[in-house]
Amino acid sequence: MRILLTGSSGQVGGALRPLLKEGGMVIAPSRSAFDLSNPETLAGALDRFKPDLIINPAAYTAVDRAEDERELAFLVNAKAPAAIAEWSARHRVPLIHFSTDYVFDGSGDKPWREDSPTGPLSVYGASKLAGDLAIEAAGGPHLIARTSWVYAASGANFLRTIARLAGERKELRIVADQTGAPTTANTIADAVSRIVLSNASDLSALFARSGGVVNLACAGETSWHGFATAIVGGLKSRGAGLSVETIIPIATADFPTRARRPGNSRLDLSQLRERFGLTPPTWQDALSTELDRLVTGQDEQAVPAMRA
Ligand SMILES: NC(=O)C1=CN([C@@H]2O[C@H](COP(=O)(O)OP(=O)(O)OC[C@H]3O[C@@H](n4cnc5c(N)ncnc54)[C@H](OP(=O)(O)O)[C@@H]3O)[C@@H](O)[C@H]2O)C=CC1
Ligand SMILES: Cc1cn([C@H]2C[C@H](O)[C@@H](COP(=O)(O)OP(=O)(O)O[C@H]3O[C@@H](C)C(=O)[C@@H](O)[C@H]3O)O2)c(=O)[nH]c1=O
Ligand SMILES: [Mg+2]
């Protein structure tokens, strides 16, 4: 099988790349060879790559910057996925794509289901939702894994920001009224590679039956404050010398940002179990695995405990 993987320099793409090798030849073009900001070039590139499966974790993920770069965010997150999905539908080549909790308006306190009403608060969220809808409209065989609060031992993410700030400051102020599930890129890659490798002979049939959107995140919930507290505790218990003494819970209103973020980012994971038989690790277990990798600077993939 020829697997086209975008975004391999990113968190999810980087975690997926080594796991997919078992499934065949992984084609992982650089941004210049497959540029999502030029959607009209993608069909030609796909004709040349001739993939049997497309996995598209590449995205414009700078949430605040997107407020000022609306056009670019929509090119990368909506127009490019639309072009890829049209090619995928035309050639009946299955497509795996990724979505976000930021498609929701964050109201209430119930976990969002795959078919819950969307209502993005930010340009990033709106651009991702437009991508999801374009893929559905193209009508090809697809799976959209909707995840939340992604991080890894490397890359640009909240774990690395907090690790850095905790080394520089005595006090951190972190929002405590946004609730969701921090999810490691490895957890996502583990689940996606299990789905791909155990159904490699007919992913199109699987996606015709069980495709569409599926929520895929770590189990449990916390706030960004809870997550930061667990990161700092985990680093200290692993012997890291940190300056931080207090982590103060604050309200969203006391941490002004360019983009609005959802208060309720909980995702209901029951469909992941029912349709794919997968039970993700708790966010605490996945964090512990990832902190071990961060502290040891280990390059090898530590696969979290996804129970199939
Ligand atoms: N990060 C998060 O917290 C969350 C992410 N998601 C979704 O999960 C998916 C994976 O995200 P994640 O791995 O964290 O993303 P990252 O920000 O870690 O990586 C993004 C990747 O996309 C690539 N990319 C960006 N712009 C282009 C472009 N114009 N052409 C080609 N490639 C491009 C980047 O390449 P380069 O290195 O060249 O910049 C990079 O490889 C995305 O769909 C995202 O929306 C969902 C929920 C939470
Ligand atoms: C650094 C920092 C952040 N915060 C807050 C701001 C924000 O509400 C929250 C998280 O900040 P970040 O900028 O890391 O989060 P953000 O970039 O919004 O993360 C999002 O990225 C996109 C791509 C997604 O799809 C989402 O699921 C989500 O992971 O923490 C503090 O309260 N104090 C701080 O010192
Ligand atoms: Mg961010």
Automatic annotation (TrEMBL):
GO terms for molecular function: dTDP-4-dehydrorhamnose reductase activity. It catalyses: dTDP-beta-L-rhamnose + NADP(+) = dTDP-4-dehydro-beta-L-rhamnose + NADPH + H(+). The keyword NADP applies. GO terms for biological process: dTDP-rhamnose biosynthetic process. Its cofactor is Mg(2+). Residues 1-294 form the RmlD-like substrate binding domain. CDD domains: dTDP_HR_like_SDR_e. InterPro entries: dTDP_dehydrorham_reduct, NAD(P)-bd_dom_sf, RmlD-like-bd. Keywords: NADP, Oxidoreductase. This is dTDP-4-dehydrorhamnose reductase. Its EC number is 1.1.1.133. GO terms for cellular component: cytosol.
